[in-house]
Amino acid sequence: MKLLWNTNKNLPVGSNLGEERTIFWGNYHFVNSYPWILNLLSKLEIEIINDTQNLDENESLIIVDHMISTKESFYFDLSNKVKKIFLIHLGDEGGAEKKDLVYPLCEHIWRTFSLPMFKNFKNVTSIPIGYKCDPKKDKINILKRNYKWSFLGTTHGSSRYDLLDKHKNIMPNFINLTEDFSGKKSMDTNDYYKILNNSIFAPIPHGYFHPETYRLYEALEAGCIPIIENPFKFFDNFLPNNPLPSVNSWEDSSTIIKKYLENKKDIEIVGNKINDWWTQHKENLKETFLIIKNV
User: Fold this and answer.
1) What one-character DSSP code corresponds to residue 138?
2) Closest by alpha carbon to 91, among 127, 124, 121?
3) pLDDT reported for residue 255
4) Is the pTM of this model over 0.90?
5) Could you say which residues of the chain have pLDDT below 70?
C-alpha cells in the first residue's frame, strides 16, 4: 500500500485561500504527527511516495492531509486516477472544515478530533490526535521520578490558571509556560520529554476548542499518571473503559495527587494499570487500519 503525506504538498494557489496558514499547519502536521501516524500504520506494509505521478487505476492510496477543503480539485482528479483513496484527516479541531466533496471520494476516513457529528458515519473512524514528535522510549521508574507533577504549555483559559493555582503547593514540581502556540519559550523535544519522563503526575486540561490535547498522549507515552479534565464525559466515550483519573475541578485533582503520594504502592499500581491499558489501546487502534487489507 502506498502512502502520500500531503499536508505540505499540492497546496492551493490563490490569494483568497489562506496559503500562509495552510503552509504553516501543513508543515506543523508533517513535523509533529509523522511518528504517531506511522506507528498506527505499523501493521501494514507501506511504501512512502512523494507524489502521485506514477500511480495507476489499479492501485489504492493512503493519504495523510489537512485543510482538505482547499484541495477539492486535487482529490477529484486523484479519484479518477486510482482505485481507492483512504484518507487520514488531521486537524479540523472544531469540525468546521468543508468535507462534503472530499469525504464521499474516499473509501474510508480516519480523522483526529472526535466529534458527535461523525458517530454514525460508517466510513469514518475517529482516532486520537496522538503525540507530537517522537517520544522518549526509556521510562524512569515512576517511584524514582523527581517531580510530583509538571505542566508545560500555554495558559489560555481560566481552567489552566486554576490548575496552576490548585497544585502550586505540591512540591517539587516543574512548570514551563509558553506565551502562545507559536512556541515562544517552549522547550525542545528532548528536554520536554525528559521532564515528562521525570514526572509522576501530569494534570491535563482540555484544549482550546476540543477536549483533546497532545499532552495527554505525550504523558501516556512518558509513563506519567495523567489526571484529565473531562468535560461532558468526553473521554468516557472516546476512550471507553480507560483507567485515567478524571476530575471536574482542579481542586479535586490536587486532592487525588496528595492521596496517592501518601501510599507509593498505589502510585505503582495505577501507573502500571494505565501503561497496560494504553499499550493495548494502541494495538486496537492499529487493527482498525487492517480494513485496508480487505478492500
Assistant:
1) P
2) 127
3) 97
4) yes
5) 12-19, 180-185
Closest CA to 32 of 149, 103, 112: 112
Specify whether the CB–CB gap between 85 and 60 falls below 8 A: yes
Helix, strand, coil share (%) of the chain residues, nearest 5: 40, 15, 40
d(CA 214, CA 132): 7
Three cell numbers written together for 11: 497546496
Q: Which distant-in-sequence residues (6+ apart) come within 8 Å of 190 by Cβ? A: 136
DSSP string for 167-229 = HTTSSSEEEEE-SSTT-TTPPPHHHHHHHHTTEEEEEE---SSSS--HHHHHHHHTT-EEEEE
- The whole-number pLDDT of residue 13 equals 65
Q: What confidence tens digit (pLDDT) does each residue in 60-84 have? A: 999 999 999 989 999 999 999 999 9
CATH of 142-281 among 3.40.50.12160, 3.30.1390.10, 3.40.50.2000, 3.40.640.10: 3.40.50.2000
Q: Domain locations in the chain? A: 2-127, 142-281
pLDDT at 15: 43
Predicted pLDDT at 138: 83
